[in-house]
């Protein structure tokens, strides 16, 4: 797992919401083992640098797990590397997962058939982001892939 960071390594005191800035970017091969490794790495970054309550941080990590799992499962065959980014600005956290697959998914209907047990991950991402006052979306990349992202506003832990 490669990591690149523009955030300070350890602040002396917890950061104030208006002063938090930085990006942590990871690139990994699309393997199932990448999901827990990146969830742990991003969780450490958020605990150290983001003014998030434990509940908001858990929601962010669930969102990350859903987006990364989708990229590994669905884009893996067409993507030699998947990029994950956790960005902090003055007011919010932005999580994104970039892959090389051209398909742009949409969240499913909120009332899928009862026998369907999968396919609700993006709907969960939408709900978690909206409940926190954030947003989510999909953007194309110049190379024909996509970036699926979610934002969550800060709260005070």
Automatic annotation (TrEMBL):
Annotated region described as Disordered, given as residue ranges: 1-21
Q: Does the keyword Zinc-finger apply?
A: no
Identify the Gene3D superfamilies for this entry: Histidine kinase-like ATPase, C-terminal domain
According to its UniProt record, what is one Pfam family this protein matches?
HATPase_c_2
* Membrane spanning residue stretches: none
UniProt source species: Streptomyces marincola
- GO MF annotations for this entry? protein serine/threonine kinase activity
**Keyword field:** Kinase, Serine/threonine-protein kinase, Transferase
Q: Where is the composition biased (Low complexity)?
A: 1-10
Q: Does the keyword Kinase apply?
A: yes
Its recorded name reads: Histidine kinase/HSP90-like ATPase domain-containing protein
This protein's superkingdom? Bacteria
The Histidine kinase/HSP90-like ATPase domain extends over: 33-131
């Amino acid at each position: 797992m490669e990591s690149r960071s523009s955030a300070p390594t350890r602040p002396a005191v917890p950061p104030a919401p208006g002063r938090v800035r930085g990006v942590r970017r990871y690139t990994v091969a699309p393997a199932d083992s990448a999901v827990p490794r990146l969830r742990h790495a991003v969780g450490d970054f958020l605990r150290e640098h983001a003014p998030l309550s434990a509940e908001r941080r858990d929601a962010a990590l669930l969102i990350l797990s859903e987006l990364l799992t989708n990229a590994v499962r669905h884009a893996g065959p067409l993507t030699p590397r998947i990029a994950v980014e956790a960005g902090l600005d003055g007011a919010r956290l932005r999580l994104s997962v970039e892959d090389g697959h051209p398909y742009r998914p949409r969240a499913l209907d909120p009332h899928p058939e009862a026998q369907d047990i999968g396919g609700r991950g993006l709907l969960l991402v939408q709900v978690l982001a909206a409940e926190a006052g954030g947003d989510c979306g999909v953007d194309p990349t110049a190379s024909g892939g996509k970036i699926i992202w979610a934002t969550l506003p800060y709260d005070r832990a």
